[in-house]
C-alpha cells in the first residue's frame, strides 16, 4: 500500500510541476493527495510547499532571456518576496496546527478565488492603468509583500494574482511578467525553506517522490509552455479546486 501511495504521489508531482509551469495551481493537486495519505493538514501544507520547490526553479528555464533583460529591475521585488515569504512561514509555525486546520477551508476558498478571477483582474487592471499615471511603485511593492506573506503561509493560487499585481505595476509583456513571477516565487521558496526545513514538519517519505517528479514535470513543461492550450488546463484545475474547497469545508469547516 505504501508503494502504491508513493507512486501516486510521484505521478501527482509530475502533473503538478507541469501545471505550475504552464498555468499555475499545482498545489491543488498534491496538497489533497498528502491529506489523503494521512498527513496532518499543517505538515501536509509544509511538505507540499517544500516538495514543489523544484518545479518553481525549473520553470525559470523558460525565461532565461527575459530574466537577463530585467536583472536590475527585479531586485526590489526579490527583496519583498524573500521578506514576505519569511514572515508568512514564521506566522504558520507560530499559529500552530489547530489554527491552521480551522483556516484550511478559508485558505482553499481564497486560493480558488485567486485562481478563478486572477486573469480577469489582470486584464481589468491592464485596461485601467494609464501610462501617464502609473501606480506608485511603493504601493505595488506593499501589495506584493502581502501576497508573499500569504505565499509563505499557504501559497495556493498565488502565481496568478501575482501576475495581476505585476500588470498593475506596468508590466505589459506576459513573458516578462511570468519570468518575474517565477523568480519571485523562487525567492519566496528560499525564504520558506530556511524556516520549514529545520521545523521537523516535512514528511520526507512523501515529499521525496513529489520533489523529484515536480522538478521533472516543471522542466518538461518548458517545452510545452507555448503550445498547450492554457485555458483548457486552467479550467480543469479550477473545477478540481472548487470540488476540493467544498470537501475542505465539509471536513474541517
What does this structure look like?
The protein contains eleven helices and no strands. It is an all-alpha fold and 253 residues long. The chain has one domain. The chain is globular.
Shape: globular
Radius of gyration: 17 Å
Report strand %. under 5%
Q: What's the helix-strand series?
A: HHHHHHHHHHH
Distance between the termini: 30 Å
Tally of discrete structural domains: 1
Helicity level: over 70%
Mean of residue pLDDT values: 79
Multimerization state: single chain
- Label the structural class: mainly alpha
Detail the poorly predicted runs.
none
- The tally of helices reads 11
Q: Profile the largest sheet.
A: none
> How many strand elements?
0
Summarize the structure in short:
The protein has 253 residues and is mainly alpha-helical. Helices cover 80% and strands 0% of the residues.
Structure characteristics:
mainly alpha; 11 helices; 0% strand
SSE topology sketch:
Layout: H1 2-22, H2 27-36, H3 41-51, H4 53-59, H5 64-69, H6 75-128, H7 137-153, H8 158-168, H9 174-196, H10 204-222, H11 230-252
Helix pairs in contact: 1-2, 1-4, 1-10, 2-3, 3-10, 4-9, 4-10, 6-7, 6-8, 6-9, 6-11, 7-8, 8-9
Amino acid at each position: 500500500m505504501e508503494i502504491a501511495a508513493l507512486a501516486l504521489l510521484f505521478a501527482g508531482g509530475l502533473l503538478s510541476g507541469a501545471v505550475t509551469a504552464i498555468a499555475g495551481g499545482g498545489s491543488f493537486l498534491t496538497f489533497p493527495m498528502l491529506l489523503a495519505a494521512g498527513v496532518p493538514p499543517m505538515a501536509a501544507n509544509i511538505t507540499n510547499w517544500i516538495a514543489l520547490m523544484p518545479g518553481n526553479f525549473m520553470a525559470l528555464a523558460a525565461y532565461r532571456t527575459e530574466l537577463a533583460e530585467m536583472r536590475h529591475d527585479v531586485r526590489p521585488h526579490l527583496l519583498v518576496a524573500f521578506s514576505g515569504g519569511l514572515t508568512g512561514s514564521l506566522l504558520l509555525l507560530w499559529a500552530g496546527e489547530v489554527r491552521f486546520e480551522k483556516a484550511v477551508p478559508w485558505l482553499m476558498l481564497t486560493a480558488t478565488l485567486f485562481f478563478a478571477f486572477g486573469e480577469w483582474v489582470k486584464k481589468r487592471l491592464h485596461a485601467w492603468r494609464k501610462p501617464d499615471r502609473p501606480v506608485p511603485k511603493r504601493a505595488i511593492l506593499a501589495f506584493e509583500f502581502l501576497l508573499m506573506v500569504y505565499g509563505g503561509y499557504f501559497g495556493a493560487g498565488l502565481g496568478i494574482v501575482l501576475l495581476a499585481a505585476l500588470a498593475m505595476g506596468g508590466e505589459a509583456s506576459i513573458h516578462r511578467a511570468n519570468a518575474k513571477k517565477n523568480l519571485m516565487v523562487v525567492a519566496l521558496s528560499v525564504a520558506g525553506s530556511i524556516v520549514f526545513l529545520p521545523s521537523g514538519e516535512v514528511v520526507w517519505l512523501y515529499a521525496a517522490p513529489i520533489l523529484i517528479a515536480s522538478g521533472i514535470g516543471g522542466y518538461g513543461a518548458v517545452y510545452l509552455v507555448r503550445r498547450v492550450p492554457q485555458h483548457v488546463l486552467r479550467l480543469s484545475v479550477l473545477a478540481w479546486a472548487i470540488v476540493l474547497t467544498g470537501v475542505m469545508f465539509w471536513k474541517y469547516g
